[in-house]
Specification:
The complex is a heterodimer of chains A (287) and B (366). Chain A is mainly alpha-helical and 287 residues long. Chain A is 75% helix and 3% strand. Chain B is of the alpha+beta class. Chain B has eight helices and 20 strands. Chain B starts with a strand and ends in a 5-residue tail after the last strand. The chains are: A mainly alpha (287), B alpha+beta (366). The complex binds adenosine-5'-diphosphate and magnesium ion.
């Protein structure tokens, strides 16, 4: 007798996942959407309105911050990829046995401490009275203390550092599965390092590259701690705007609209990334 | 002048010598096989020829030019990898065009040559297919075409038939030989399968523990093995330990451990004398099997009883035991009608000539 594939056990196993999806992902977002689409018309009464979205487009501070966050996130993703790729290639293809595991572990170590502590680590290094400034003064390269915090470069450093692991892991996994003899065959047929990289290694690593980029982009876009701490007051990160609306201004409607816009942006970027690289979502996330 | 020559090539990994003082000369346009058990250093030797490993000593010359310090992408040799290593993200034509692109061949000529080589390997019209759409044998031919389109001086092939099933392997043996003579390219072919080496090669080098044991034509290896290892590795053999009882010139009488006296003929250079321990080889297919004593001038004539019939179609074997000495002997089962009713316990008359035995002193090799 053929039993149904979707028996009781299947549903029992699926239940926690479904609960999680519905309660923590779906419901809040539906609620967020509903809140963002209403306008207070009197005490305790609301009506449907696109006012908060219109607000976003008419107030330059809002959409400029939004754009800036998107561009900085893209840049951070790109930088992370550029730094992580050679690193992952080195670990996956050049190292063998114990040395490989050790290097892989070394990549993980910074993530044993919380993001807050890690970010404070950067602050200790970069602030006016910090380690780097001290070293520069000691070596005589600068006369006065140097402030390296509270600028875009500091934000970028922190973002790339925070995101690195999420790029390195999928890259190592895909590069590990690349057969060495493909690279050797390329050399044997007259190829050199550069065109092998583009014609053999990158196409093979594409699912890892795309999945790493998607994760890093989403994490960076939604990061609050790093831009605020390293960028200071004028970091102009969009999550800060959301925070301000919800907590400082108590304008939940505006904050919700911003949240929905951020969600739309990250969905759009994921879709674009998949389209441009010709990958499918299941293929990429299966890595 | 040989197209490829190497002299005293040696490669060590830590304190393990994978290739030990190998010298070889490969003639232009020939099919040269390197035959040896797995782990004997064949791949390492080939990787040195291709330039992926650097030899610890010795040198390689291709067309008289030393290859020391020449990178793999600058050597006039190409390699077909054990698992083919076709680029999965490129089409069949893309794979074949890869090498031509690296040489900046103009696209019109590139297309023409890709089409040409595809036709010659019997894959005309498959250029736009994806690699995984092809069967194992077709992928094999793409891997070879990808190299041959570059007109290499030497094509290196590392056990290319290893991954194929038996029937296809039999077919590809003939196919490869045909391709080699059609293109006239020098092939250096690595295998652990003696049948592949015997069927295709002009010359075969038998390799063991990083050394060449013997280099010769397939017939040389089969009829005149140069060492006990070659006699045991190439083809099947009865392998008997024994002691020399008598020697007059080339005529040697050996008594096996089981006590069977065998007349053998020593090869030129055989050093053994009376009392020396030897290994004696007689091929099962070299022994004449008869139901009645047929006489004849063969030096070795004896009677034996059937212990077991090992049925394997055309390659069926009879396990026999000689009456006096209890020496076990393996012979081929003749498929003629008079043997059809043969069963265990039946008596058979065996005979073979002294020159059909191979004789090697134990320990000294020859
Ligand atoms: N990179 C390497 N490092 C250490 N040992 C190796 C390496 N490559 C091969 N060997 C050793 O050298 C021997 C010969 O290997 P190989 O040339 O692959 O043999 P074959 O191709 O005849 O099976 C094997 O014992 C193998 O373990
Ligand atoms: Mg091998």
């Amino acid at each position: 007798m053929k039993r149904s594939q979707f028996g009781l056990g299947f549903w029992l196993l699926l239940a926690p996942l479904l609960l999680w999806l519905v309660l923590l992902i779906l419901l809040p977002h539906v609620d967020l959407l509903l809140i963002s689409l209403r306008l207070r018309s009197g005490p305790g009464t609301y009506r449907f309105s696109l006012h908060h979205y219109a607000e976003f487009f008419t107030e330059p501070l809002y959409w400029r911050t939004f754009l800036r966050t998107a561009i900085m996130s893209l840049l951070a993703t790109l930088l992370t990829l550029l730094i992580a790729f050679p690193l992952a290639y080195y670990i996956a293809k050049m190292m063998r046995g114990r040395a490989k595991q050790l290097l892989f572990l070394l990549c993980l170590i910074p993530f044993w401490v919380s993001e807050l502590v890690r970010t404070y680590g950067w602050m200790i290094l970069l602030r006016e009275s910090g380690v780097v400034s001290g070293l520069l003064q000691w070596s005589g390269l600068t006369g006065a203390p140097l402030e390296m915090l509270y600028n875009d470069a500091a934000i970028m450093v922190g973002l790339v550092y925070t995101a690195m692991l999420f790029m390195v892991v999928p890259l190592i996994t895909t590069l590990d599965s690349l057969d060495d003899s493909l690279i050797e065959a390329g050399y044997d047929l007259g190829g050199n390092g550069w065109n092998l990289l583009w014609e053999v290694v990158v196409p093979h690593a594409m699912p890892g590259i795309v999945s790493g980029c998607i994760v890093v982009f989403m994490l960076t876009l939604g990061n609050y701690l790093t831009p605020t701490l390293l960028g200071g007051k004028d970091s102009l990160w969009f999550t800060e705007q959301i925070y301000t609306q919800f907590i400082t201004r108590f304008n939940w409607e505006q904050g919700s609209a911003f949240g929905i816009l951020l969600l739309l942006l990250s969905s759009l970027m994921v879709w674009l990334g998949l389209r441009l690289s010709g990958q499918s979502f299941t293929q990429v996330m299966g890595r | 002048m040989p197209v490829l020559e190497c002299a005293s090539l040696t490669k060590r990994f830590a304190d393990f010598t994978a290739v030990d003082n190998v010298s070889m000369a490969v003639e232009q346009g020939s099919f040269y096989s390197i035959l040896g058990p797995s782990g004997c250093g064949k791949t390492t030797l080939m990787r040195m020829l291709a330039g992926f490993e650097r030899q610890d000593s010795g040198n390689i010359r291709i067309e008289g030019k030393s290859m020391t310090g020449v990178a793999p992408n600058r050597r006039p040799v190409n390699m077909v990898f054990q698992h083919l290593a076709l680029f999965p993200n490129m089409s069949v034509a893309g794979n074949i065009a890869y090498g031509l692109k690296r040489r900046n061949t103009p696209s019109a000529e590139r297309e023409r040559r890709v089409g040409e080589v595809l036709e010659r390997v019997g894959l005309a019209g498959s250029g736009n297919k994806r690699i995984e759409q092809l069967s194992g044998g077709q992928q094999q031919r793409v891997a070879i075409a990808r190299c041959l389109v570059l007109n290499p001086q030497v094509l290196l092939l590392d056990e290319p038939l290893g991954a194929l099933d038996l029937k296809l392997r039999e077919h590809m043996k003939i196919e490869l030989k045909r391709l080699q003579s059609a293109f006239g390219t020098t092939f250096i072919y690595i295998t652990h399968d003696q049948s592949e080496a015997l069927v295709m090669s002009d010359r075969v080098a038998v390799m063991n523990h990083g050394r060449f044991e013997q280099v010769g034509s397939p017939q040389d290896l089969y009829y005149r093995p140069g060492s006990a290892f070659v006699a045991g590795f190439v083809g099947d053999n009865n392998r008997w330990q024994g002691v020399i009882e008598q020697r007059v010139g080339a005529k040697v009488r050996v008594r096996t451990e089981q006590g069977l006296p065998v007349e053998a003929q020593a090869a030129a250079g055989f050093q053994g004398g009376v009392g020396d321990a030897v290994e004696l080889f007689v091929r099962p297919e070299a022994i004449r099997v008869q139901l009645q004593d047929g006489g004849g001038e063969a030096e070795n004539r004896l009677q034996a009883r059937v212990i077991e019939i090992v049925f394997d179609g055309a390659r069926s074997r009879l396990q026999l035991r000689q009456a006096d000495s209890a020496q076990e002997i393996l012979v081929n089962l003749p498929h003629t009608p008079e043997f059809a009713t043969l069963g265990p316990g039946d008596r058979l008359y065996l005979s073979w000539h002294a020159h059909q035995c191979s004789l090697f002193t134990v320990g000294a090799g020859r």
